[in-house]
Structure formats: C-alpha cells, structure tokens
Write a structure and sequence with these properties.
Layout: E1 9-13, H1 18-33, E2 37-43, H2 44-53, E3 64-69, H3 82-109, E4 118-122, H4 127-134, E5 138-143, H5 147-154, H6 156-161, E6 176-177, E7 186-187, H7 199-210, H8 212-216, E8 222-224, H9 232-236, E9 241-243, H10 266-272, E10 279-283, H11 292-305, E11 309-312, H12 323-332, E12 337-340, H13 345-350, E13 354-359, H14 363-371, E14 376-378, H15 385-395, E15 399-401, H16 412-424, H17 426-442, H18 448-461
Parallel strand pairs: 1-2, 1-4, 2-3, 4-5, 5-8, 8-9, 10-11, 10-13, 11-12, 13-14, 14-15
Antiparallel strand pairs: 6-7
The structure holds uridine-5'-diphosphate.
Length: 462
C-alpha cells in the first residue's frame, strides 16, 4: 500500500447533514490511512449527535481528530427549517472556521499541532473554500452526489440565461434538456433542486445550489463519490472532476460512518434467520417525510406483498403521528415484518438475505445499493433523488420507479406491482451484478477510483 511520510494536515468540512458527513468521514479514513493527519469539522449540534450515537467513537487519539464550530443556532433550537438553518450557517460559520484555522496555527507555533495546510470542503459548504483561498490554504472540493447532478448544477447560469428556468429554479419549459452533447438529456422534472412538497423550501434550496458554480471556481479539483465506469460522460465534461468512489465502509470502518442516530443492530440477527435474497429492505434516508396517507399506502403495499421486510421508520418519517396505525400494522405483519428506527444500512445491504432495496434514491443509498448488487425500487422525495431515479431506471437499468397517482401518492397497488416486477426481473438482477462488479473493481488495487485517489494524495496532498 502507498504510504507517505510527509502528508499534510488536512481539514475536512462536510455540510451538516447525514448524507454529507458519512461520505466525507469515509474519505477522511482513506486519507488518514495513507498517513495524513485529518481534522474533521462538524457543527456542535452534529458532533453531539454523532458522539451520542457512536459511544465507541474516539474524539481524537487516532489520526482523525473531531473538532466543532457553532452553526449559529441555539443548542436546543429546531434545525429542520432550511431557511433558518442555511441563513445561520452562512452568517456565522465562515468566521468560526477562520478562527479555528488561526487557533491551530498558533498552537502549532507552540508545537502542539501541525498547521493546517490543505482543506477538503463539501461544495455544498463551498464558503469554506473561500475561507481557505483568503487564508492561502491549498484546497479541493468534494461532491457528495452524482457527477450528473454536479454537471446540471454547474450549468445553472446557462439554464437561467437560456430561459429554461427562472431565477427561482422553476422550469419555464416542460422539456428534455441537452446541456452537453455527450450527456444523456435531463428532464425538467428531474431538476435537482426540486422539492415538490414545499415551494418555499425549493426557492431557498435553489438559492443555495446556485452558489455552487461559484464555489466550484475556488478549487482546481473536485473529488466525487462516484466512479468512472458509472458516469464516464458526466465526468468527462467537468474539468477537475476526480471520481474516487464508491466510498463504501469496509468492516473495519463501519464504526466510522458517523451515524447521527443509534443503529439498531438487532435487525442483523433477524436477517440471519432468513434465506438468501428473501428480504425487502425499505429505508428512505435521513430527511424524507411522508404524509400519513402516503405512509399508510406504503405499509399496506408491504403487507400485501406478504414477504419478509425490514423497514426503517424514523420517528420523524411522517409529518403527523401514525402511532395507532403503526401498532396495528406491526401486529398484523409480526410474522414477516420488522421495523427499526435506524439501521446499520451498509451491513444490511451487504447481507445475503436482502433481495431488494425500496429507497428514496439519496445518492449514498443509491451507491450503497449498487455496490452490493441489490435491485432498487425507487420513490424519490426531493432534490437529486429524482435524477438518481432516472439513472437507476433508464440508464443503468438496475431498478424500477414507483409513480404517484393524481395526488402524488404512490398507492399500495403501485408499490405491490412494481415491487413484484423488480423481484421477478432477471434482467435487473443481471445488471445489478454487472454494476456491483464495476464498483468493486474501481476501488480495488489498480481500479480507476483507487488510482485517482492515490494520485490525488501523491500529487496534491503530499
Ligand atoms: N442510513 C443508515 N441507516 C438507516 C438509513 C440510512 O445508516 O436506517 C445511511 C445510509 O447508509 C446513507 C445515509 O444514511 O449513507 C443516507 O444518505 P442518502 O444520501 O442516501 O440520503 P439522505 O439522508 O441524504 O436523504
């Protein structure tokens, strides 16, 4: 294995959300494995959650040291309002980050620590790259979603200029859009700032996403959690895009995923009791929220399929309480269904008993499904999940989508029909195995992603 004596002290900054902390923590582990010292910056609130959910996690005696900066909200303040959250982050975090870097520098004069000489920042927290530029620190961006999402995002100024979307990201034409001739066309329905449940959130989300083309200019390279064989054309149109994924946790690093909630590992023992490829795994990530009506339809769909299922039902998965319904449902499905509040998802997807993954198509979940060769049933909720669904169903052909009815609700009939179609499709299973093989190869010795990472470490960080 490549090891380097003189690697720098690297500061790593994710956007404060599960789907961003996890891949950047995995990347930090890879970099630390090559000998770099990593300081991982979480907001105080995320740090408290990670530490509470991972009691064995060491705050800093190994090569990854966890530090915190405030996000500007009170400790007990609600963090679900995106406008409040994003405004506060932009207002206070750049200043706190600068102070942190200066503090480490002062300490290093007293030889307690090495000064920070390189920064890797999530492009969705791209203000951090501006701080690094001002302070003369070398840097690289990190993109936690698909490269096809990045290609679309970087094209936002041209989409506005060309009258394809307005200044709030609303599609002005219901078209198929070709942004580069080498890329599959994008449907306006798949715009990655889409938030169908809430137009106000979509507006704020779009303002945030619109900064990314500017942030992108603050670094020469962008490390992407994807691999060449999966998204070759999108990668080819973004100068400096460096695919180093899929960032999957190896058994050794499972505890370093930075789950924000306690993982209920009883489900692994439950999976052990089931035959190969018999269980439907259902999980919609960390932020999807359903109406009770949608929740009931999903539940009835699973009940009617009458096959073993493991369903992650976060306490905040629905926007109104469903406790009474859930109690009755659990009673009815007790012989074949298990519900947990948060699962060790990567172990679940790697388990031989899992037959299919009913997912919201968050990019991490999508990659974790692909890397384990598990067919996907897709029910996106917001943002890039719609575009990911299109790639899963139409480009890689490793799954099917469930469609909403005239009210946008995926009915029990639709869930049952599409689930049975995915479970019965030889073609989908064959494609899944092919993509799994490509994913594994890309991060193995001599593989495209591993070589990109090694070259980045050797020529940029070392
Ligand atoms: N996850 C998990 N346990 C669960 C559900 C999700 O560990 O019960 C992890 C999952 O493995 C993934 C992340 O949470 O790494 C969710 O990220 P994703 O991009 O899929 O969705 P988001 O939460 O950002 O919508």
């Amino acid at each position: 294995m490549l090891t380097m004596a003189n690697l720098r002290h690297v500061l790593v900054i994710p956007f404060p959300a599960q789907g961003h902390v996890t891949p950047l923590l995995k990347l930090s582990c890879c970099i630390a494995d090559y000998g770099a010292k990593v300081t991982f910056v979480n907001t105080e609130s995320i740090h408290a959650q990670v530490m509470a959910a991972n009691p064995g996690l060491d705050e800093g005696s190994n090569r990854i040291k966890f530090v915190t900066i405030p996000d500007g909200l009170e400790t007990d303040e609600e963090r679900k309002d995106p406008t409040k959250m994003l405004t506060s982050i932009l207002r206070v975090m750049p200043g706190h980050l600068q102070e942190l870097i200066e503090k480490v520098k002062k300490q290093s004069n007293g030889n307690e620590d090495e000064p920070i000489s390189f920064m890797i920042a999530d492009l969705t927290a791209g203000w951090a790259l501006e701080v690094a530029e001002r302070m003369g620190i070398k840097r690289a961006g990190f993109w936690p979603a698909s490269v096809s999402t990045l290609a679309l995002t970087l094209h936002i100024p041209q989409l506005i200029e060309g009258g394809v979307i307005d200044n709030n990201g609303i599609a002005l034409k219901n078209d198929i859009i070709t942004i580069w001739k080498d890329l599959p066309p994008y449907k306006s329905n798949d715009f990655t700032w889409k938030c169908p449940e809430d137009p106000m959130t979509q507006k704020v989300f779009f303002q945030c996403v619109s900064s990314i083309p500017l942030y992108r200019k603050r670094s020469n390279s962008v490390l992407c959690n994807s691999f060449h064989e999966l998204e070759a054309s999108a990668i080819s149109v973004i100068p400096g895009a460096l695919p180093i994924g899929p960032l999957i946790a190896s058994a050794r690093l499972f505890h370093l995923r930075g789950s924000l909630w306690n993982e209920d590992s009883t489900c692994l023992k439950w999976l052990d009791q089931h035959p190969a490829q018999s269980v439907i795994y259902v999980a919609f990530g960390s932020t999807s929220v359903f109406s009770p009506e949608q929740f009931y339809e999903l539940a009835h769909g699973l009940e009617q399929i009458a096959r073993p299922f493991l369903w992650v039902v976060r306490p905040d998965l629905t926007d109104r309480p469903v406790t009474e319904f859930l109690d009755g449902f659990l009673q009815r499905v007790r012989n074949y269904g298990k519900v947990v509040q948060w699962a060790p998802q990567e172990e679940v997807l790697a388990h031989h008993s899992v037959a299919c993954f009913f997912t919201h198509c968050g990019w991490n979940s999508t990659l974790e499904g692909l890397s384990n060769g598990v067919p996907l049933l897709c029910r996106p909720y917001f943002g890039d999940q719609f575009l990911n669904r299109s790639f899963v169903c139409d480009v890689w052909r490793v799954g099917l989508g469930v469609d909403g009815d005239e009210n946008g609700v995926a009915t029990r009939h639709e869930v049952r029909t599409k689930m049975l179609a995915v479970l019965g499709s030889e073609e989908i299973r064959a494609n899944c195995l092919r993509v799994k093989e490509m994913a594994r190869k890309s991060v193995s010795e001599g593989g495209s992603s591993l070589m990109n990472l090694q070259s980045f470490i050797k020529h940029t960080i070392a």
